[in-house]
Every structure is written in structure tokens, then in C-alpha cells.
């Protein structure tokens, strides 16, 4: 059943606060569909998602914080990737980021993911701009 971001976060928090595992599990299922653990599921997530695509850092960082708080480790890689896809100035100027003051684990994970994603992108670009090596039998040729 489709839902929205605010409902998802509210149900996740209520389920945790009042120890109603069925609520928490249901919310985590929605989260796992939107932030899957395989590339094939990631590619198909827009067709399978149960809440609208999130297009701002504040909401994705809130989900990252919730996933960390509720030990939903299986969605962390996708959420970190998604959070790391925003420009650095968007991340640092985000109100949720500023309000998160003492959440060093989440902030550090987000920034580390950003740096690793940026470095990986540079390696891919460097690889792609290398001259064509057709016919090259060995690395030293």
C-alpha cells in the first residue's frame, strides 16, 4: 500500500517508541523497497517504491538517521549513496544537518561516503579517458 515520507517516519518512530514491532517492521519494509540492497532492485526501485521519490537531502538524511537508530543496516549503503549524491554545499547548508549537531556517527558516515563516492567517480572518469588499448597484449606494451 502506498504511503508518504512523513507517515513512514512517524510509523517507524511510533513503532520503536511503543515497542510495536509490527509497525516498525512494516515501515522498514517500505524503506527496504526504496533503498534496496542489490543493483537490480536499485534499478527497478522507481517501479516498486511505496512512497514518492525523495528529492531533498533533509528527508534522506532523516531516513539515514532513523535507519542507524533502528539498526536497519541493510538499507544503510543505499541511503549513504543517495545522501552522498547531493552537492557538498547542499549537505552542509541543510537545516537537518545543522540541527543534527552531535550526531557524529551519522555525519561522519555521510561525509566519508561522499568522499569515497567522489574518489570512485574520478577513478572511473580517469579510466574512461585513457587511450584505446585495442591490440595491446600486455600492460607494458
CA gyration radius, whole angstroms = 19 Å
Query: What percentage of the residues does DSSP assign to strands (E)?
Result: under 5%
Quaternary structure state of the chains depicted: single chain
Helical amount = 55-70%
Task: Report the strand count.
Answer: 0
What report would you give on this structure?
There is one protein chain. With 141 residues, this protein is mostly helical. Helix content is 66%, strand content 0%. It has helices spanning 5-17, 21-34, 39-48, 57-69, 76-83, 88-92, 95-99, 104-128. The longest helix has 25 residues, at 104-128. The relative contact order is 0.10.
Write the layout of secondary structure elements.
Layout: H1 5-17, H2 21-34, H3 39-48, H4 57-69, H5 76-83, H6 88-92, H7 95-99, H8 104-128
Helix pairs in contact: 1-2, 1-4, 4-5
Question: What's the short story on this structure?
Answer:
Helix 1 packs antiparallel against helix 2 (21-34) and helix 4 packs antiparallel against helix 5 (76-83).
Which terms summarize this structure?
mainly alpha; 141 residues; single chain
Amino acid at each position: 500500500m502506498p504511503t508518504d515520507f512523513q507517515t513512514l517516519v512517524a510509523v517507524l518512530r511510533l513503532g520503536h517508541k511503543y515497542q510495536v514491532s509490527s509497525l516498525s517492521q512494516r515501515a522498514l519494509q517500505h524503506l527496504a523497497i526504496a533503498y534496496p540492497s542489490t543493483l537490480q532492485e536499485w534499478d527497478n526501485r522507481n517501479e516498486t517504491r511505496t512512497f514518492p521519490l525523495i528529492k531533498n537531502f533533509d528527508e534522506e538524511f532523516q531516513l539515514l538517521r532513523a535507519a542507524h537508530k533502528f539498526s536497519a543496516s541493510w538499507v544503510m549503503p543505499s541511503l549513504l549513496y543517495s545522501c552522498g549524491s547531493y552537492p557538498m554545499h547542499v549537505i552542509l547548508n541543510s537545516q537537518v544537518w545543522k540541527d543534527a549537531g552531535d550526531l557524529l556517527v551519522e555525519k561522519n558516515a555521510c561525509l566519508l561516503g561522499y568522499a569515497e563516492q567522489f574518489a570512485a567517480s574520478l577513478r572511473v572518469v580517469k579510466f574512461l579517458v585513457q587511450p584505446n588499448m585495442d591490440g595491446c597484449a600486455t600492460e607494458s606494451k
